[in-house]
Amino acid sequence: MRFQTSMGTSLDSPYHRHPEGRDISELEISELILPGTIVDARELAGDEELTVDALPERLTSKAPPSCSILDGTRTGGSEEYRTYPYISEGVIERLIDADVSLVGVDTLNADDHQNPARPAHTRLLDQEIFIVENLCNLDSFVGESFQFFAVPIKAILILALAAAVLGARGVAGLSMDIANWLVIIFVVLAIVTFIL
């Protein structure tokens, strides 16, 4: 008997699939803050694979470290959440060839849940390409440039300190009110980090 144990948004490091690989505590923050690209998979049916044809042009050749996010727009708790589009083996190889650093999905799993070989997890994590699952609210990023933060909760303390320093000086393009709220939010997260 097998059970899906991931709950909420989760980050998989190589150790998740390969015991000799790095675990989350060994990842650098710089590896987890990346420019992102949305791969729009909203037209795919549940249990349908995402093919290479769906990938944007920038993922067809070598690119700077980045992340690719699959947007299947599935809602947790609904029946469609359990039937979701997944990454085909062709896409896995293309992402590896393009030197993508992280792959995120707004679904339960990057792999077809009916395939116990878990090719996305096996191949991507073997190549040090991290996987983030159960993302949400990606619709507003389709066609947009954005920075993706896949920072584990324990690392938020470092970001809180950086936000406090930046917020105290003001952040270019943000009003001081917004900068101050960001500092407060990050400080609260830092306190939560110590409690956890």
TrEMBL record:
InterPro entries: DUF1328 (IPR009760), KFase/CYL (IPR007325), KFase_sf (IPR037175). Keywords: Cell membrane, Membrane, Transmembrane, Transmembrane helix. The chain crosses the membrane at residues 146-166, 178-195. GO terms for biological process: L-tryptophan catabolic process to kynurenine. GO terms for molecular function: arylformamidase activity. GO terms for cellular component: plasma membrane. This is Cyclase. The keyword Ligase does not apply. It comes from the Archaea.
